[in-house]
């Protein structure tokens, strides 16, 4: 069974994908996969490795958000941020769940998947791929450091499907970091962590009416992405890579 699962994973991770956003044009739909993980969690490495495999897909935006609630067991996660723990708890509240755990993946802000369950993750991504995003994102010029971005609903009748404000968030992340862990449940391991989120900032709020125009300046070369999400922890309506 493990061999079969590995073969399925190899196939779906390497399927050819169309190229993503073009400058000045609409961004290709991305499925956002957020992994809540910790360097202090002994069951997290398989999920961390799975997220790293996802980085090969241009139709998926995988993001690793390290939480801080495992720090007490002997190893302080170097990438943990209390804001990411609050985000995970926010998703749990919105989804009617009574607890949080690691490793956990949230797909497009909506679906909860155990982080190392490759088959369920594959099914969830495929299901979200066939649902066109409600919001179109056009990006122009971020390769030069400053980009002009416009957001608009793809359909005039989509407005009733939205509830409350829409949060526009800028994500900055590190493509790959390697950590030597000397204490805690993973003591003695050297582990790679992909797409480690270092900043997640709200840059605008939108009511979904008309077209939202904004300009974003990237002050360094780290990868960046834009998330358009029902505030505060609802569905991710669209996402685009900015550089």
From TrEMBL:
Coiled-coil features, chain-numbered ranges: none
Protein name: Putative secreted protein
InterPro entries in the record: DUF1223, Thioredoxin-like_sf
Record has Manganese as a keyword: no
Keywords: Signal
Superkingdom in the source lineage: Bacteria
UniProt key word Transmembrane helix: no
Transmembrane segments: none
Range of residues in the leader sequence: 1-21
